[in-house]
Amino acid sequence: MSDTTQDRTRSCSVLFLGQAAGRLTEDRDGYRFSYNSDYLARPDAAPISVCLPLRKEVFFSRELHPFFDGLLPKGWTLDIVVRNSGIDPRDRMGLLLATCEDCVGAVSILADPPEESG
User: Fold this and answer.
1) What is the pTM of this model?
2) Angle at alpha carbon of residue 49, lines to 60 and 107, rounded to 5°
3) Of 37, 40, 49, 66, which sits 20 to 30 A from 75 (CA to CA)?
């Protein structure tokens, strides 16, 4: 987790095959992923990964879970994203939100709209 997340919480929807499967949240303690209760109730519900089996309990990790970290660009592609976006490469959630709405595979990340101030 980067220093930029010390005083804020960021979250996003996790879609699996286009269906809202769960939520990923980052706060000062770490990262939490949980499946949506509506998704768990579906007869065709499938885990987004073998390392994140279907369950009601929240998955917690101090670091971004390896499954989500694996969705991020690597190598020269990451270098280009960092250079063009200005996102700190240690800001894993920021990179996930910026790059994984339309990533390769069955999972995509849909960033929450920014909160309005005022």
Assistant:
1) 0.86
2) 100
3) 49
